[in-house]
Amino acid sequence: MPIRREDRHFYPIDWRELSTAIRFGRAKGRCERCGRPHGETVYHLPGGRWFDKEAERWRDGRGRVVRKKSLPDPRLNDAGPAPPRTLVRLACAHLDQDTSNNAADNLAALCQRCHLEHDRPWNREKRRLTFLLRRAIGDLFTGPYRR
Fold first, then answer.
1. How many domains, in total, are found in the chain?
2. Using CA atoms, how far apart are residues 139 and 146, in angstroms rounded to an integer?
3. Contact present, 107 and 27 (Cβ < 8 Å)
4. Is-contact 1 94, C-beta < 8 A?
5. Backbone angles phi and psi of 30, in degrees to 5
6. Is residue 121 part of a domain?
7. For the segment 11-67, what is each residue's pLDDT rounded down to a tens digit?
8. Residue 11 falls within a domain, yes or no?
9. Burial of 102 (0-12, 13-18, 19+ CB in 10 A)
10. Chain mean position to CA 96
């Protein structure tokens, strides 16, 4: 994910090189949680299932192979409309949400889906705090906060 301009000072100067080393050196261009390949378009289904072109198999949200008979090959036209596709992009994520902690065991190469899943509790808390802050500011200056 791109870094916001106002947050760039939280990251080290060599962040691009560090991120590249994690995403393509250590993870070899695949998500470290589900195994989706960087830069490729993958078919996906609800619940995180996706089609691995190399293995020609469906995988679940953790990268484990799903039974072959349970899902059709998405490239076949007789199976109905093809499932949605997504272009996979890897990002280097801080596992403890601390951008100053750049230890290798605190960084992970994650695809968009896994990165959002990992950050979900943190994003919910930020949303709650933003709501409370806006309500407090509204009470101080403009009267009761309207929902």
1. 1
2. 10
3. no
4. no
5. -130, 150
6. no
7. 888 889 999 999 999 999 999 999 999 999 988 888 888 888 888 888 888 888 887
8. yes
9. middle
10. 15
Lowest mean pLDDT among 1-15, 83-97, 104-118: 1-15
Helix (H) or strand (E) holding 19: helix 15-20
* Residue corresponding to tokens 């393509």: 24
The two structure tokens encoding residue 71: 């899902």
**Contact indicator for 64, 58 with CB cutoff of 8 Å:** no
Structural domain for 64, as ranges: 5-111
User: Is residue 45 in some structural domain?
Assistant: yes
Residue 118 is assigned to a structural domain of this protein: no
Coil, strand, or helix at residue 91?
Answer: strand
pLDDT at 57: 84
